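Protein folds are increasingly written down as discrete tokens. With that in mind, we are printing a sequence and the tokens encoding its fold.
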Amino acid sequence: MSDPPAFRIAPPPFLADPAVARVLDALPEARAVGGCVRDAIAGRPVADVDLATPRRPEEVMRTLAQHGIKVVPTGLDHGTVTAVVEGRAIEITSLRRDVATDGRHAVVAFTEDWREDAARRDFTFNALYLDRAGNVWDWFGGKEDLARGVVRFIGDPATRLAEDHLRGLRFFRFHARFGRGEPDPAAVAAIAADVPNLASLSAERVWSELKRILAAPNPSGAVRLMRQTGVLAAVLPEATDPERLARLASIGAPPDPLLRLAALAPGADVARLAARLRLSGAEAERLAAFLGPAPPTEPRALRAALAEAGAETIIGLAWLAEAAGLAGDWAAVRAIAAATPRPVFPLRGADVLALGIPPGPRVGAVLGAVERRWKEAGCPEDEPLLRRWLAEAAATAA
């Protein structure tokens, strides 16, 4: 605990956040750690705030309770509790060191040595600690690596990957966000050698990292590197078109992981992919929609497509069509889709029954025939016309 800080910065705004300040009032020895410190130094927005403390978790919980702060024991085995202040969750982890690892999980022991805690973290710029006064502890050159845009493991990369094979995917997530120029060659070589061990990771952990990689401002460089190392084929064998993903990012499409997954894996079997990666039902549904055909550009057909699929899907498909180099004014399609309320077919089964057709299959058949005619006509907002078509269809079905 006697190590002097490496440098000092102006205390970032997140330290003055009322929720964070209240926890630090209760635990004045605590330091912010990890992503919040890294992002503050990089001048990026800070999302979650994590704190570290030499106190044991039981003492942390007792102290927070004494200060009237709600605390949840979210991971006592690993020394983590969560303070909840005014609806905001702040993770607090006791300093620790690894006793045993198996590539997926670690057994830890608690320590009061800040450097020992830092040494068990994955990358140099994730092992930065910040106190309330703006002092920063940096034992492994994280600030320099952040400035250079290099993602570098703490210690021997192969050893760190053997401790947790997910770190290979985490490397690409951070390379996509912070990497510039050539990646660290020792890291790349170790990750390539560790590819066979990726099969031991749970689908949930893999998909969580893939989503974060694909959500980066421009993940194309990281994805190409994943392909070169064999990681992409191991975790996403459906990924056949990295260049289409690169074009999608370059033309300004939103950083939607599922839209980008559709660009990267255009021929994917959605059911099989969703089952393997444990996608949620909503994620599988969106991916299936984005793997559909390009939207029409003719106005009437476009309105029908909007009625069928909705604006979000049509806009996404237009981005994908442009990234694929298909002919069409895709910017205009997106603009029309964004500005057009989704057409809604106004007739219901009760309208068919009112014409004297008894309940049964004929009701659905008549209604379906009129709805198809409505879509073919560009979804006109003309209810008298639709009722005339309905009468014609009912007479034909009689």
In short: Strands lie at 7-8, 31-33, 50-53, 70-75, 80-85, 88-94, 96-101, 106-110, 129-130, 135-137. The radius of gyration is 27 Å. The chain is about 50% helix and 10% strand.
